[in-house]
Amino acid sequence: MAVRLLRYMAPLASTALLQCRRSPKTAGPLLTLSPPTALGTCWSKKTWPKTFPEEELRKQLTPMQYHVTQEKGTESAFTGKYTDNKEDGTYHCVVCGTPLFTSDKKFDSGSGWPSFFDLINKDSITLTDDFSYGMHRVETTCSQCGAHLGHLFDDGPRPTRKRYCINSASLNFQSKNSASEGVGPTEVAGQSTSTLKPNKGHGD
Predict the structure, then answer these.
(1) What is the pLDDT of residues 126-185, one digit of tens each?
(2) DSSP strand E in the chain: where?
(3) Which DSSP category does 76 fall into?
(4) Residues forming the active site
(5) What is the SS3 assignment for 21-65?
(6) Which of 44, 68, 145, 187 is at 20 to 30 A from 60, Cα to Cα?
(7) Exposed, middle or buried: residue 52 (CB in 10 Å: 0-12, 13-18, 19+)?
(8) Do the beta carbons of residue 45 and residue 19 sit within 8 Å?
(9) Is the pTM for the entire model greater than 0.85?
């Protein structure tokens, strides 16, 4: 019977998440469907290598940067400062400064957000299932500090076929010319994010 039940619910898998719980009246498991809008993002409760005091983040980041990286917000399409940026350089996490993407992996997706088809390091981003807004997407977060970056889609160009759709507000850009001169990433809210100090006991 369980097999027939699963087959019946299979078409609903893209819009709802199966959860297994124990019925209070029986010893056996009971399969239930929970609306994705109620579940929201399946956030992984883990300790990130780098964490920062909230008051420091609010001080160093702009309201939009804070909203995107800490509250999983999304900037409006075609409004981000890096959407049409074609300069050579490296894109870093705006919170902790981790290098994420290089300009040679950036492409014009027409989506209205900066898009990349590959990472600098495959371990620099953490992928998490996101069932918010009645759909299934893959959320991307910085593996070092947990900052929300955007989402990953499988409609990018070759060779990866990946499209990392990233909010400009979650990035800092370091041009190739400034890097060769020893200048740090673009400053945020008047101060470089390199001044952010992690909480003690959580990495550098």
Answers:
(1) 999 999 989 999 999 999 999 999 999 999 999 999 999 999 999 999 998 876 555 455
(2) 17-22, 29-34, 89-93, 99-102, 106-107, 115-116, 125-130, 137-142, 148-153, 163-166, 171-175
(3) P
(4) 165
(5) EECCCCCCEEEEEECHHHHCECCCCCCCCCCCCHHHHHHHCCHHH
(6) 44
(7) buried
(8) no
(9) no
